[in-house]
Write a structure and sequence with these properties.
Distance between the termini: 47 Å
Number of helices: 11
Order of helices and strands: HHHEHEEHEHEHHEHEEHEH
Helix content: 25-40%
Radius of gyration: 19 Å
Structural class: alpha/beta
Shape: globular
Largest sheet: 5 strands, parallel
Strand order of the largest sheet: 2-1-3-4-5
Number of strands: 9
Length: 301
């Protein structure tokens, strides 16, 4: 039975392991085709979906299916004439994605992943993958984004059930020391986890209005580490490069470097975002200045 005092975001965060299992069972032929057909692919999204696009692109290319580029919609280089385009939009109403689909080259086949069937993005694509089971009431994206990554990993042959079990452990375990009180939080990733590190930082900015940054792990040494000090938390997604943990700890900063999969670590960050927002008297379901979808008027162009 659900707790009536819980926010929608809390319920959606807690539901993620089950959503991943559904994603594994409902991997559609269209998603399987676009991810596993060899050849160039562009993956495009905005906001959270841009960071998910980075993750999906890195996973696919690492799996050996060909060059895979991730773009935010306004910067997509469609003049390269990709044979396949994968667009990501939870609401299916994002203006920049609709415009991108309208201007894509005639020979580029577009597949859309949305939470809402029949939405403008869904209608504009050649094929549509609907993750309606992972749709959300809250403005802040959590389970839609992670379910899309889980569906990608299932399509590429990974064991999503093991991920779901690990997420259940993470949801039931204490949060790492210092993460709820950090003055500055930095997320670092390598390979496919870089996109998730960027998304983790976005979640804290959106839900808690707090200072959060993200970098490829080795880039942190090239300048940003100058800001590390007591009160800084540096959270590493995936494997830490040799020597990085000791170097950061020498500044007095707290390092979170635990043996969770990066997608599971993102679930832990969702918990931090909700808890910190509540402590600060903020509404995690409706962050300041944000809406569920960015729909721009004609005057914006």
């Amino acid at each position: 039975m659900s707790n009536p005092s819980e926010t929608s975001t809390e319920r959606e965060v807690a539901s993620q392991p089950e959503m991943w299992r559904i994603a594994m069972l409902r991997t559609t032929p269209d998603l399987l085709r676009v991810l596993t057909t060899p050849g160039p692919l562009a993956v495009v999204g905005c906001g959270t979906s841009w960071f998910v696009a980075q993750t999906v692109a890195a996973l696919r290319e690492s799996a050996g299916y060909g060059p895979t580029d991730a773009y935010t919609a306004t910067e997509a280089r469609l003049e390269r004439e990709y044979p396949e385009l994968l667009v990501l939009s939870r609401s299916g109403t994002t203006t920049e994605i609709c415009q991108l689909l309208a201007r894509r080259p005639p020979r580029t086949r577009a597949t859309a992943v949305v939470a809402v069937a029949g939405s403008p993005v869904a209608r504009s694509a050649d094929d549509t993958v609907v993750l309606d089971y992972a749709d959300e009431e809250s403005v802040v994206q959590t389970r839609f984004a992670t379910s899309l990554v889980a569906a990608t990993r299932a399509a590429l042959g990974e064991d999503v059930e093991a991920l779901a079990r690990s997420a259940e452990v993470a949801l039931a375990s204490p949060l790492p020391r210092g993460v709820l009180d950090a003055r500055q939080t930095v997320f670092l990733g390598t390979g496919w986890s870089i996109g998730l590190a960027h998304e983790a930082a976005l979640k804290l900015r959106e839900a808690t209005l707090s200072w959060s940054e993200s970098y490829p792990a080795m880039e942190y040494r090239h300048g940003p580490v100058a800001l590390a000090e007591p009160g800084t938390v540096v959270w590493i997604f995936g494997s830490a490069p040799e020597g990085l943990v000791a170097e950061v700890e020498s500044t007095g900063a707290t390092v979170v470097d635990e043996p969770f999969d990066a997608l599971v670590d993102l679930v832990r960050v969702h918990r931090v975002a909700v808890d910190r927002a509540t402590r600060l008297g903020l509404d995690p379901d409706r962050p300041r200045n944000l809406t569920r979808s960015v729909v721009l008027g004609h005057s914006a162009f």
